Structure formats: structure tokens, C-alpha cells
Amino acid sequence: MPLFFFSLRFLFLSAIIPLLASIVLYRFDTFDPALLPSDALVYSTDSISPLINDQLLTGAEFIGAGLLNSPEDIAYHRDSGLIYTGCVDGWVKRVKALESVNDSVVEDWVNTGGRPLGIAFGLHGEVIVADAYKGLLNISDDGKKTELLTDEAEGVKFKLTDAVAVRDNGVLYFTDASYKYNLHHFAFDLWEGKPHGRLMSFDPITRTTRVLLRYRYFSNGISMSADQTHLVFCETPLRRCSKYYINEERVEVFIQSLPGYPDNIRYDGDGHYWIAMPSGVTMLWKLSFRYPFIRKLQGLAAKYGFDTMIFENAGVLQVDLDGKPIALYHDSKHSHVTSGVKIGKYLYCGNLVYSHILRLDLLKYPAQKRL
Ligand SMILES: *[C@@H]1O[C@H](CO)[C@@H](O)[C@H](O)[C@H]1NC(C)=O
Ligand SMILES: *[C@@H]1O[C@H](CO)[C@@H](O)[C@H](O)[C@H]1NC(C)=O
Q: What sequence ranges are listed for the domain Strictosidine synthase conserved region (predicted)?
């Protein structure tokens, strides 16, 4: 066979057929990403912190190495000094973090049978868990009883219960990141770019679940304000955290144009919130969120097993009570930081992929003035 025909056939088989197939796939696939609100596409300098440590990994210690499977959230129990964290294998683990990392102790406490994400403490010593697959759980203080509090509102089931905060009157406030996609498929929620998230409350006395806000974009971390008047919650693809005033039922921007995609937010009891960002803003994330057709391609790729969600330059932003940035701790070589909180002189970080909790001594490795 003349070489010419051979190469034509080769070209046809190797390039044109796959190209035609992808065009057909693209056109007829029902996955239909939307434009994001325009303020999500603003990259302003307002949220640039005056202080920075861009070498989060330098000097970092790894607590519970090998014993903590993707510890997502971190909740510090002041009375016992224990850190509670939820792992991907369903375990809520308790960590006694000591000065020497190697002497730290990890205890398998309770397995929810789901995927514990957000953790908070109830008024009577119980542990409240936002379990991605199960809903909102109440674990008794002795760990012997796990009770499902709620897993639906207004007839719509939660698909991705994400984070929880407790008010001093006992009411629980929590987020469902998506009623459409579960944790395993969360990438599709981001690629689709539609608001499937809700902010809700659960009153343990009346046992009622109330929807406070609907149509939120992947509503993720949540924290109760120090004065108990409002919540602060994060919407990941919008790079924004908002305040929700509980009595007034009013929403206000807390911080926007974040340098990354916010996950959990934690109050440290000392005038600061810590906002974890599993990834910083990259060119690919920017393009994805600007152009729905790129997200459509990414969604199609994900359907066929190709992951184009790349996390890099993860970190934690410390802000004051008004949402004003104070310090950023991050590292271009680090990813998937999902939670951060200051306990004593240390910053503790949870994550989505490693088998440890990262700890940084903030006195030894402080954030410093930007050059
Ligand atoms: C802690 O354990 C790791 C791994 O076993 C070891 O490499 C390191 O030297 C230990 N550190 C201290 C301070 O003992
Ligand atoms: C959680 O369960 C315990 C009993 O194990 C109960 O005392 C407590 O009030 C419950 N908390 C909530 C928020 O329902």
C-alpha cells in the first residue's frame, strides 16, 4: 500500500475519528455549565494580606503521620485539649498533640460509616458531625451513641453535608454544599457552576430543620461569630465568605476576591478567623470559572476518568473580625489544605489527601511584611 494512503488512513483513525467523537459527545452531552456571577471573576488586591509566609512547609511538623487518613476539619476541644478530626475512612479521630510530634497520640474514636467533614461541639459535651454522606449527626460524649439529626429540608435531601457551627443557645447551623452532587462527584458541582448549596439550621428542641439561604455556590465552611450575632460561611467557587445575621436574616459580604478557593473557616477565640484554601488561584482555575465551555470539557473529561482539577499553592488566610486580611500562610508546593486554626502558638491544618495534620510554630515561622 502506498505510504500516502497508509498515512491518510492513520490520520483518519488516530485524529479525525476521536475529534468527531468528541464533537458529538460535547454537543449532545447534557452536562450544561453556567456562567458564574461576575463578581466571582474579579481579581482585586483587596484581600491581599500585609503579612505573608509563603513557605508553609518549611518548619512544618506532621502529626499522626500514617494514622490520619485525609483529616478534613479540625475542632479543638478546650477542656480536654484534644483535637477532633474526621477521616475519609469514616473515623472521627481524637488527637493529643504534644510538644514532640512523635509523642502525639491518635485515637480511633467513632466511625460514622460515612465521611465526617465538619465537626463542632454541642452544649452537653456531644460532638456534632456534618457527614458528607449521612447528614447531620450527634455523637454522645462517651462515643457510644450516634444519632442522625437531619438529612433533608423542604423535601430535598442533603447530598453533601459539609460544615457545622453551634450557637450558645444550642441551635446548630450547617451547610449542604450541594443537593445535586455527592462528595465523590463534587468536581461536577464546581464545573457546572450552579448554586446547589444551602445554609440551614437545626433546632434540637423542636427538632426542625430550617433553610436560611438557598442557591449558594458550594456552601462550604461555617463559623459562629464571637458575639453570636452572625455566621460566616464560605462559597468555594466564588472565592467569597459572607456573613449571615441570624436575627435580621440578612446577608453581607465578609471577604471576597480571596487568593484561593475557601473551604473551612475557623474562629480561634482570639479575634481572628482562619480561612483554609485547598488551592490558590491559578490560570487554569481562572479560565475554567470564566468560560463555561472549558468547564464542560472538564466535566466530560471527568466523566471518562480524567481529573483536570489541579490543586496547588494551598494555604490559610488569617483575617480579623471584619474580614480584613492579616496574614497568609501558604506554599506553592502544598495542596488540599481544607482547614486551619491557631491553637496556642501553633497553626494546625487539616487536608483532603495526606495522612497527617500539619503543624506550624507561628512564633518560629511567622508571616512577615511583604517585600
Ligand atoms: C520522629 O519520627 C520520624 C519517623 O519515625 C523520625 O524520622 C524523626 O527523626 C522523629 N523525630 C524526633 C524528634 O524524634
Ligand atoms: C445529642 O445526644 C445527646 C444524648 O446522647 C443529648 O443529650 C443531646 O441533647 C443531643 N444534642 C443535640 C444537639 O441534639
A: 162-249
